[in-house]
Structure formats: structure tokens, C-alpha cells
């Protein structure tokens, strides 16, 4: 049991007692917020904030130490031509690559996140998931992105999901725990809300939308539902939980829509890399291009930014 | 209110989310220094004129002709002359004129949206994303009926009535014009339309659209003016049909004036809609629906959800969420793309909203608005809610037609229905619950022409709209909307 | 040197291929036939199979588009067809027939958001139930098109306005493929209309017996024996069949609702009412 005042004894009734989410309504609200327009002077700050919120990610079977080292270097200095460009929030890699990234990032303030717990499917015995977690932390990860067992969640075995999260949380020790709900597999917004609460009740420091490995990743309405969940959870328990949309966010325009969503849903308290992250890879270069456009007054092109 | 948040120097978060100003360009619309009447396919100057102002700034936009009795005579005569040839056209040809109009509106929609926001005070987000798309869609929909009238269920050979006198309000100027003109033309009638005194411009621009479409002269005539012009028009012996949207008070007068004549009449009048929130409602979306229900278009909506009925078991939760949401509403420049609530349409309407709100407070209801800085010029009213309202309060009975919400409570579905129906009005209602059988049972018992469940203020050209009781009679929109214009 | 005038400019000829999935492929068989001096594609059974696949793939999205959107798309077809009027006249279609075809698209465009209003509605069942019937498209429709251009439009438009997708076998290749070009430039999603040019007697049996085809429109079949054979083949998967008319084909009048309703399924929804 974690530090919350909510009873978890009957998880099913707690989760099914949450108010429903009307699909049409939540999607309409998200698309209305997406029409908000940010003025030019504030846009520069929005872009820098978005850069500081990026979990720069590579999660490919083809990842190599060279690739991860290059990515980590880019995390520290996203735009080598412009020292005023801030570093990203974190680098996110597979556990086997944590040891590669750790020395590059050491002492920089850029966090080192690792997916664990049989990412991306979550289909492994609990002891394997815990070992995965401990290895990543031992190698230098200070953030763990775990996946929940969607199979267990969808078949109503909420206690199992809850216990897995608490066990991973314990194995992660001081590392921050981000719990990936894989919302693209949950099927309904009601399930997204329930999974969000389940993860928060079990001790998640962050709730995260997606692995990026299934067809539907982060969307605005899903993130809106999760932001409502962290807002309501803090109101009920006093504990603030972060949100991380991941996958499918590729442009500055997209990123700013998410910032607007935070501002109008959970509120400005979440407009901080400590409480909101973007799980992304190609997003960073678009942010850099737009940043350069604001500085120089003309459009830039992909050839002018590093590919890592 | 977001616009009124104190500005903390050095805190980037506050700077960033001062979204405004992100103004829509005013240069897409060119307003002439004066406008005449559109009669028989041409603009002519009237003898007298009046000014129309931008309610957000009180700036005079232009001068418009004030139609007198003889002008109305000329317009009706033109419509009568055009009536024969227009009704004799094959439906497929009338259809193509209406499709042309729909297409031109689509192509000129940004211009017309900016114009509408200038003259009316509504946020550009609404004129751009709601009014104009619906206007075009309405013409498309009725264009399609013009050659299918035999399939509409009103007999094998339905005939037009002749000349329709149409008087529309200022809250959705161009949309109300579309609701009136599209079905009238599709069925082979010709029209004389009078836009509201405070919002004549989009109707005059529509006259230009008719010319672009090469619509035959006299089929559409636009006479601008105030109440007297409207009275001359609806009482004119040369018209066969009167269609009015506006206040119940004027509607009653018109119903009296057509009594004893052969004129057909449809009325779309006021409302005091109940928006009923049950304890199993999807709370976040219900709050959006409540906000949309009363603050959409500054509450200048006849079907606005102006009475919020909350089940007592979720009262605190819903009210808290509603107040939190209201603090994020952005009031200000209608042309700013981030504005949620624009200007009140006129000084007179502002005075009425103020008066009824003061009465609400005097009668003992608790008044609340989010902190809100309003612009110095123009007509503005902060979004307001009253709690502790009972059925006896005037703010629970009278249509305020502004951004003012009266909150009441109930314990059981039967009580909700009883309270919802306890009004002389019957235009619309809202129901919020996740339980389907409850939605359908409550909807059955509500005496209202439109019932929205888990949504609010939704409009579509295919869907009939209109009221029970003193909210008027006749339906606009959908297949039903043809009936008012067919013999 | 003898004086010569500049040689007349040589025109560029159009190649008439098939129209499948929004693209213009040649027949996989490599076959063509000579029609009025053009080598036009002669479709095979495998082209028919590919066309059914393309029609099936896009059908849910097309049916899922709002009726308003489908109406707008059909109106756009009318606009584009009007713009290419001269091209059809040059192919030998009488000008009045092209005009009638434009108006036919307009007529059907208007039905998109009205057919449900005249072919569905609330049913006053004797009990505390909400009961509503609404039409839905049957799915993929195989059409053997009549020879006339107005006839071709008159069999395609009612099928697609209601949310079906079609595979058309056309015997007037140049006009049919040019219509395909109109459709390809009219916001009609690729695969909603697929045009095969070839011999109905060769291709139609494969479409009639194809298990993933939901309906068969035999309007253009003028051989009664072939029509009967095709209807028998269609019985295998209980396809909805529109039989050829027994009277001479005339597409100039009001088509009525039957061309649409024949390709619609009615779905009735029950739901209890109670506090």
C-alpha cells in the first residue's frame, strides 16, 4: 500500500466507481483546445519548455552503443550551434544500453530512463520483470518506464496489475517510476481513466500513454483524460503525479497543443519537466527547426540538424 | 479568468499561456460606408438610415437604410413578381441555384465569419467553426430537397405558398437567415427578409452572394430596419407566410396580427432550458456541456441551458468542477482566436442582463463569477452563476439571454422532470447520465422540442428544431422544415 | 526549295487503362482490345478480384464518412463532370446526355443526407422501448453497367451515395474510364468506384460468385440467359440482386428510391426506457 488515503481493498469497485468518460465529449474538448493559438513571443518559451520536457528515446532492436552515445550527446546539446538551447529532460533506452548512456550523461542533470518489465508487451514472469528493473537501476538508470500487463487489466485482474506496479516500484528504489498504460490497447477512455487511477494508487510517479510499439500511441483526448486523472488524484490525495504522452508526437505544433492541454486541464503546476514529459525522438529536431526559425526569421531544413 | 491572471514577471509559464492576442485578420472583409436595401436584385438607398456598431468597441461599422412602409411594399411586390417564374422552375434548377449559394458561402466563409463577429460580437472561433459551416450546410441540405419534394411526405405534388415574410434575430444573424431562406427557396417560395436592427450586415453580404449566384431578381429581398419595419412586413397583405425568430413577446404580437388572415405562421421564440445532471453523469464532459450550454455565444441562445438542475448527491463535485472550468474561460476581443466569450450584442441587451442579475441577487440567490477583467469599451458581462436558486426566482423563470446560469437541485428523476417542465417555455433540454434507459425515459417526459443527451447545443441541417408551448410552433431544419413552406 | 507550310501538330493520345483502387493500372493479363482505334484494357478475373479487394478495403471508411461529406463529394463529381463536358461530347456522348448525367450526380448528392429520413424512422412499438430503424449500406456492389453514359452514372451514383463501394464492368471503355478520371479528381476516395473494361460474359461470373461481394446489379445485362446464370451464381452467398428490366432501358426520368433502397440494409435498434 502506498502513500495515499484511498482504500484499495476493493479495487474493482473503486475503479468502476469513477465517473465515466463520454467519448464524443472528450474528443470535442481536445480538438477545441487544439485550436488555441500561441503568440510569437510566448512560442519561443513554449518551444524551450517542450525541449526541456523531451525524453529523447531510442528503443530499437538495432540500437548499438554508438547510436546510444550519439543520442546521449545530442540530449546534452541538442543544437550544437546554439549554446542557449536547453538540454532535454532525459534519454530513454533499453536496459542493455543504460551502461552506455550513463557515463555520457553523468552529472549533467539529464536523466537516464530505461524501459523495463519486458517492454513492450509486458508478457514475462514477475521475477523477470523485477530483475530487468533492478539491472537497469544498477546500471545507472534513475527513471524506470514500466509497462502494465494489459492482458491482466483487460481481464479484470486489477489486483495483479496493482501488485506488479508496487513490486516494480519497490525494485526501482529511488528511481522514478513511469507506468506505461499502453492506452492504444485499452480500447476505451473509461479504461484509460481506470488504468490511470490504478497506476497512481499503486504508487506511479508518472503515468505514460504508450510504448510507441502499437499502432495507436499518444493522442490528445487520451492525454486529456490522463491529465484529468492526475488533477483529480491530487485533489483527493494531495500527491502529484506526472504525465508522459509517448509516440506519434512529431511536430512543434503537436507539442504546443499538449502544453495547452496541460494548462487548461491539470493547470500550470504541470507545465514543468518534473511533471510532464514527451516520449519522442523525431520531435526534437522539429522543435529545433522551429526554434531556429524564430531566431533567424526564416525556415530551416532537416539538413541543418543532427540526425541522432 | 485567464485574461485577468496577475502577470508574474520572470515566470515563463505565465508569459507563455497569455495566448492572446491572436487576432483574425480584419482585412478579409471590406465594409462599405453605407448600404441600401436589396430589392428586386439591386441595392437602392432608402430615405432614412441607421448605424450599426461593433459591440466590442462601440465603433460605428457603417450606415444602413431604414426601410419604411413603401420600401416594404416594393420588396413584397418584387417578391410577388418573382414568385411565379421561380416556382415554375424545375426543382432541379432551383436546386442548382441553392448549391451555388452554398458553394459561394463556403468560399467566402472566412470573410463572412469575420463580418459576423464584427457586427454581432461573437467570438471568431464560433463564427468560423460553428455559424458559417452550418450556414453552408443548411443551403446544401435544402438544395438537395428542391427536386425531391414529392418524396418528403407532404403529398405527391406539394406547392409553394408564395411570398414569405421572414424576420430574424441578432444572435446568429447569418445562420438564422439560412434557416429561413434555404427551405423557402427550395420549396419554390420567394422571400422578403428583415435582419435584426443591430446585425444587418451579413444579410446584406448575403444579398451579394445571391447576385454572384445569378439568382433571379426578386427571389430574395432584404429590408433592413427595426421593429416597425418588421411589423410592416409581417402585417403586409401581400405575403402568404410569416416566419419569425425572436422573443416570445413579439411572437405573441405577430400571432395576434395574422389571426383572421390566410397567412401561415411559424414562430421560434424564447426558452429557459433545463440542463439535468444525474449522479452517474460523465462529470468532465457534463461540465463542458454546461459551459457550452450557457456560455456559447454569450448565452444569446434561445435554447441555452440556462437552468442547471444537479442531482443533490453530486452537487458539490459538479459545482466545484464547473467553477474551476469557468476560471479558464477567456472573455475579450471577439476577433481573437483564443476568445471563448465575446461581447454582449447591444447596450440594451446588456442592461437587461444586468437588471435580471441584480434581481437574482436581491431575491436571495448567491452570485458568483470568476475573477474577470472586462475591456473598457464595448458591452461586456462576466460569465456568472447563481446558486441557491429556486423555481420561484425570476432568474429561474425569465429568459435572461446572457451568460448567466441559474443552479437548482433535485433528488429523483421524477423531480427533475417536474422542475424542468415547470415553465411556460419548451424549446430544449439537456440530460447527463451514462444510463441509456434513463435518458430515453426522461426525454419522453420532457415537454421540449429538442432534447440533448450527454451533449448540448448541437445543430444540424437534417435535424428539426423548434419549441413546445410558448417557445413557438413549427420546426426548422430537416424534412420537417419543408412543411412550413408547402401548401 | 518548295514552299511548305508548318506540319500540323501531332496530338498526344490517351491510353485507356482500368480504374482500380484510385489508380489506373493495366490489366494484369496484359490484354487489350481495339475499340474505335484505341487499345483499351481488357480486364481479367484477377483484375475483378483486385477490384473487389480495393472496394472492400475502403468500404467501412466510405460508409463511415458523414452523409453530409458523401453528399459534398458527389456534388464535387458533378462539378468536375461539368468541367469536362466537352471531352465526353468528343467521345460521342450527346451533349444533352452529359448534362443529364451532371444533374443526376447533383440529384444523388442531395440524397446522401435524406435517404435515411424517408427510408427509416421511429417505430411505435407496444412497450416501453425506443425503437428506431435506419438504413445502412449493404457493402460491396458489383455492377454490370448499361451501355449509355447516363445509364452508367445512374447505376454508380445510387450505390455510392448510400455508402456502398462498387466494381463496375463497363462496355463503353473510353467514356467509362474518362468518368473514372472525373472520379479520381473529385475527392472520391480511391476504391469507392472501380471500373473494369472488358467482356461482361467473361468477368461477371467471377463477380457474381465472389463471396466478398454483397450485391449484384445486372441492369446492363441484355442477355436474359446470362442474367439468369449470374443470379444463380449470386445465390451462393445470397447477394442482393437487381435484375435487368424487361422494358427498354430509359434513364431520363426520375429514378425513384429503388436504385438506392435495393442496396441498403435496414437496422432496427431497441432500447428500454425507464428511470
TrEMBL record, chain A:
Query: Which superkingdom heads the taxonomic lineage of this protein's source?
Result: Bacteria
Reaction(s) catalysed by this chain's protein: 2-deoxy-D-ribose 5-phosphate = D-glyceraldehyde 3-phosphate + acetaldehyde
Pathway the protein acts in: Carbohydrate degradation; 2-deoxy-D-ribose 1-phosphate degradation; D-glyceraldehyde 3-phosphate and acetaldehyde from 2-deoxy-alpha-D-ribose 1-phosphate: step 2/2
* GO function term, MF aspect, one: deoxyribose-phosphate aldolase activity
GO terms for cellular component: cytoplasm
Query: Which keywords does UniProt give here?
Result: Lyase, Schiff base
Task: Enumerate the Gene Ontology biological process terms.
Answer: carbohydrate catabolic process; deoxyribonucleotide catabolic process
Protein's UniProt keywords contain rRNA-binding: no
**Known SMART domains for this protein?**
DeoC
Give the EC number(s) under which this enzyme is classified.
Answer: 4.1.2.4
Q: Which InterPro entries match?
A: Aldolase_TIM, DeoC, DeoC/FbaB/LacD_aldolase
In the record, which residues are listed under signal peptide?
Answer: none
One Pfam family hit: DeoC
Q: Which family does it belong to?
A: Belongs to the DeoC/FbaB aldolase family. DeoC type 2 subfamily.
Q: What is this protein called?
A: Deoxyribose-phosphate aldolase
From TrEMBL, chain B:
Q: Which UniProt keywords apply?
A: Oxidoreductase
A GO molecular function assigned to this protein is: oxidoreductase activity, acting on the aldehyde or oxo group of donors, NAD or NADP as acceptor
Q: Where would I find the Aldehyde dehydrogenase domain in this sequence?
A: 47-486
| Catalytic site | 268
| Flavoprotein recorded as keyword | no
Family under the similarity heading: Belongs to the aldehyde dehydrogenase family.
Name of protein: Aldehyde dehydrogenase
Q: Per the UniProt entry, what species is this protein from, by scientific name?
A: Mangrovihabitans endophyticus
Amino acid at each position: 500500500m502506498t502513500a495515499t488515503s484511498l482504500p484499495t481493498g476493493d479495487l474493482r469497485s473503486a475503479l468502476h466507481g469513477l465517473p465515466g468518460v463520454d467519448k464524443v465529449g472528450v474528443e470535442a474538448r481536445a480538438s477545441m483546445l487544439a485550436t488555441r493559438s500561441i503568440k510569437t513571443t510566448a512560442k519561443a518559451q513554449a518551444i524551450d519548455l517542450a525541449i526541456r520536457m523531451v525524453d529523447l528515446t531510442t528503443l530499437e532492436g538495432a540500437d548499438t552503443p554508438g547510436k546510444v552515445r550519439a543520442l546521449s550527446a545530442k540530449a546534452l546539446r541538442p543544437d550544437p550551434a546554439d549554446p542557449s538551447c536547453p538540454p532535454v529532460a532525459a534519454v530513454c533506452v533499453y536496459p542493455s544500453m543504460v551502461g552506455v548512456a550513463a557515463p555520457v550523461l553523468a552529472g549533467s542533470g539529464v536523466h537516464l530512463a530505461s524501459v523495463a518489465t519486458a517492454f513492450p508487451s509486458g508478457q514475462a514472469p514477475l521475477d523477470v520483470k523485477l530483475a530487468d528493473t533492478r539491472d537497469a537501476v544498477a546500471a545507472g538508470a534513475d527513471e524506470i518506464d514500466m509497462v502494465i500487463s494489459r492482458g491482466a487489466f483487460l481481464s479484470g485482474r486489477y489486483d495483479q496489475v496493482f501488485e506488479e506496479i508496487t513490486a516494480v516500484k519497490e525494485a526501482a528504489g529511488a528511481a522514478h517510476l513511469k507506468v506505461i498504460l499502453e492506452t492504444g490497447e485499452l480500447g476505451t477512455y473509461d479504461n484509460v481513466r481506470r488504468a490511470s487511477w490504478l497506476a497512481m494508487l499503486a504508487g506511479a510517479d508518472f503515468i505514460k500513454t504508450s510504448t510507441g510499439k502499437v499502432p495507436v500511441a499518444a493522442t490528445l483526448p487520451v492525454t486529456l483524460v490522463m491529465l484529468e486523472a492526475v488533477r483529480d488524484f491530487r485533489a483527493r490525495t494531495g500527491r502529484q503525479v506526472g504525465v508522459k504522452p509517448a509516440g506519434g508526437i512529431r511536430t512543434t505544433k503537436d507539442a504546443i497543443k499538449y502544453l495547452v492541454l496541460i494548462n487548461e486541464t491539470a493547470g500550470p503546476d504541470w507545465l514543468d519537466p518534473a511533471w510532464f514529459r514527451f516520449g519522442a525522438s523525431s520531435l526534437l529536431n522539429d522543435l529545433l527547426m522551429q526554434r531556429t526559425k524564430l531566431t533567424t526569421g526564416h525556415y530551416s531544413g532537416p539538413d541543418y540538424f543532427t540526425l541522432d | 479568468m485567464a485574461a485577468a491572471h496577475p502577470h508574474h514577471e520572470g515566470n515563463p509559464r505565465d508569459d507563455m499561456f497569455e495566448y492572446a492576442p491572436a487576432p483574425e485578420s480584419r482585412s478579409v472583409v471590406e465594409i462599405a460606408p453605407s448600404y441600401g436595401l436589396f430589392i428586386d436584385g439591386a441595392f437602392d438607398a432608402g430615405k432614412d438610415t441607421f448605424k450599426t456598431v461593433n459591440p466590442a468597441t462601440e465603433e460605428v461599422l457603417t450606415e444602413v437604410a431604414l426601410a419604411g412602409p413603401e420600401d416594404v411594399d416594393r420588396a413584397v411586390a418584387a417578391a410577388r413578381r418573382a414568385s411565379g417564374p421561380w416556382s415554375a422552375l424545375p426543382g432541379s434548377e432551383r436546386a442548382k441555384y441553392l448549391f451555388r449559394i452554398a458553394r459561394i458561402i463556403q468560399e467566402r466563409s472566412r470573410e463572412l465569419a469575420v463580418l459576423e463577429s464584427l457586427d454581432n460580437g461573437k467570438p471568431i472561433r464560433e463564427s468560423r467553426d460553428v455559424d458559417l459551416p452550418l450556414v453552408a450546410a443548411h443551403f446544401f441540405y435544402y438544395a438537395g430537397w428542391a427536386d425531391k419534394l414529392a418524396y418528403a411526405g407532404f403529398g405527391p405534388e406539394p406547392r409553394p405558398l408564395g411570398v414569405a415574410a421572414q424576420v430574424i434575430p441578432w444572435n446568429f444573424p447569418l445562420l438564422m437567415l439560412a434557416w429561413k431562406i434555404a427551405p423557402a427557396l427550395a420549396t419554390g417560395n420567394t422571400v422578403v427578409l428583415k435582419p435584426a436592427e443591430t446585425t444587418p450586415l451579413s444579410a446584406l453580404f448575403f444579398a451579394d452572394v445571391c447576385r454572384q449566384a445569378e439568382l433571379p431578381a426578386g427571389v430574395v429581398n432584404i429590408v433592413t430596419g427595426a421593429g416597425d419595419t418588421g411589423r410592416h412586413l409581417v402585417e403586409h397583405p401581400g405575403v402568404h407566410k410569416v416566419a419569425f425568430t425572436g422573443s416570445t413577446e413579439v411572437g405573441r404580437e405577430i400571432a395576434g396580427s395574422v389571426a383572421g388572415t390566410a397567412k401561415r405562421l411559424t414562430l421560434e421564440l424564447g426558452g429557459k432550458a433545463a440542463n439535468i445532471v444525474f449522479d452517474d453523469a460523465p462529470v468532465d464532459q457534463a461540465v463542458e456541456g454546461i459551459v457550452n450550454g450557457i456560455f456559447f455565444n454569450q448565452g444569446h441562445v434561445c435554447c441555452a441551458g440556462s437552468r442547471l438542475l444537479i442531482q443533490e448527491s453530486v452537487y458539490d463535485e459538479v459545482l466545484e468542477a464547473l467553477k474551476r472550468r469557468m476560471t479558464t474561460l477567456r472573455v475579450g476581443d471577439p476577433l481573437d482566436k483564443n476568445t471563448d466569450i465575446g461581447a454582449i450584442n447591444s447596450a440594451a441587451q446588456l442592461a437587461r442582463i444586468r437588471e435580471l442579475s441584480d434581481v437574482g441577487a436581491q431575491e436571495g440567490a448567491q452570485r458568483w463569477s470568476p475573477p474577470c477583467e472586462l475591456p473598457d469599451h464595448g458591452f461586456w458581462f462576466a460569465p456568472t452563476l447563481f446558486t441557491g436558486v429556486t423555481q420561484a426566482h425570476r432568474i429561474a423563470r425569465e429568459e435572461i439571454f446572457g451568460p448567466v446560469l441559474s443552479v437548482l437541485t433535485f433528488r429523483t428523476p421524477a423531480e427533475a422532470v417536474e422542475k424542468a417542465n415547470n415553465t411556460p417555455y419548451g424549446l430544449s433540454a439537456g440530460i447527463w447520465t451514462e444510463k441509456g434507459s434513463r435518458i430515453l425515459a426522461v426525454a419522453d417526459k420532457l415537454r421540449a422540442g429538442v432534447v440533448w443527451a450527454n451533449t448540448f447545443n448541437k445543430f444540424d441541417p437534417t435535424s428539426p428544431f423548434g419549441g413546445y408551448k410558448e417557445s413557438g410552433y413549427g420546426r426548422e431544419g430537416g424534412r420537417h422544415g419543408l412543411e412550413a413552406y408547402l401548401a | 526549295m518548295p514552299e511548305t507550310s508548318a506540319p500540323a501538330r501531332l496530338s498526344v493520345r490517351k491510353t485507356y487503362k482500368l480504374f482500380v483502387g484510385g489508380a489506373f493500372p493495366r490489366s494484369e493479363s496484359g490484354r487489350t482490345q481495339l475499340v474505335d482505334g484505341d487499345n483499351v484494357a481488357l480486364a481479367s478475373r484477377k483484375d475483378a478480384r483486385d477490384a473487389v479487394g480495393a472496394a472492400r478495403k475502403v468500404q467501412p471508411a466510405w460508409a463511415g464518412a458523414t452523409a453530409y461529406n458523401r453528399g459534398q463529394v458527389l456534388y464535387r463529381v458533378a462539378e468536375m463532370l461539368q468541367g469536362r463536358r466537352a471531352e465526353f461530347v468528343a467521345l460521342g456522348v450527346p451533349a444533352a446526355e452529359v448534362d443529364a448525367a451532371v444533374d443526376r450526380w447533383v440529384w444523388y448528392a442531395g440524397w446522401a443526407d435524406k435517404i435515411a429520413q424517408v427510408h427509416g424512422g421511429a417505430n411505435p412499438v407496444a412497450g416501453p422501448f425506443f425503437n428506431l430503424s435506419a438504413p445502412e449500406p449493404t457493402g460491396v456492389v458489383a455492377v454490370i453497367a448499361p451501355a449509355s453514359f447516363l445509364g452508367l452514372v445512374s447505376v454508380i451514383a445510387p450505390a455510392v451515395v448510400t455508402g456502398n463501394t462498387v466494381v463496375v464492368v463497363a462496355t463503353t471503355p473510353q467514356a467509362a474510364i474518362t468518368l473514372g478520371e472525373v472520379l479520381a479528381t473529385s475527392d472520391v476516395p480511391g476504391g469507392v468506384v472501380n471500373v473494369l473494361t472488358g467482356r461482361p460474359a467473361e468477368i461477371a461470373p467471377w463477380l457474381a460468385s465472389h463471396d466478398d461481394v454483397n450485391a449484384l446489379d445486372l441492369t446492363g445485362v441484355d442477355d436474359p440467359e446470362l442474367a439468369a446464370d449470374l443470379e444463380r451464381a449470386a445465390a451462393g452467398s445470397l447477394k442482393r440482386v437487381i435484375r435487368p428490366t424487361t422494358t427498354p432501358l430509359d434513364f431520363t426520368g426520375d429514378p425513384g428510391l429503388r436504385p438506392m433502397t435495393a442496396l441498403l440494409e435496414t437496422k432496427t435498434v431497441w432500447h428500454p426506457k425507464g428511470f
